Amino acid sequence: MAKKKAVVGDVVEVKTSAGLAYLQYTHELDNMGSLVRVLPGLFAKRPRDFQDLTRQKELYFTFYTLRHAVRHGDAMIVSHQEIPDWAKPYPMMRHSADSDRTGKTLVWRIVRADTPFTLEELRKAPTYQELTPELERLSTHVLHSHPSMVYHLAQEWTPERAEQLRLKAVSEKKAREAKNSCNS
Predict the structure, then answer these.
(1) Coil, helix or strand at residue 153
(2) Same domain, 110 and 176
(3) Nearest alpha-carbon partner for 141 in 162, 123, 120, 155
(4) pTM exceeds cut of 0.70
(5) Is the CB of residue 62 less than 8 Å from the CB of residue 157?
(6) From CA 90, how far away is CA 84, in angstroms rounded?
(7) CA distances from 164 to 78, 80, 104, 155 (A)
């Protein structure tokens, strides 16, 4: 199934350093691009049955430069499956409204995925300084380029692990900077 134009319902394969990951295209938004479901698991080889995989609950939703990735061969359409009923409505997502120098979000807004990011709409959105476990599981409202998507998939990133992985990245960056300053 080597077509070059993705349509809603398509399942795409993304190669990562940790294995093959699968995304299902669920919605298109003019202002954010393609909304995809990140399906569970990383695979050593392509599964035979995508119907079973797409019937599983997604890890999260995210915006992704899907059409660009498919057009340039970075992602490959491998199947077309019915979108489960629970994944048809636009999901609620959390959006970072303010952060500190390390990237830690100080204020979150909760919005539906198709909410336009206008001042009026953002003012209406509820804000939170602390997230409950339920809000922490909400997908983050962000657009991923292909390299960013590959990186997150290989890390097995999920919304619940976002802060843990952010702190790890900050620590690794500091270690690299310290090593580079010692080598100078």
Answers:
(1) helix
(2) no
(3) 162
(4) yes
(5) no
(6) 12
(7) 32, 34, 11, 11
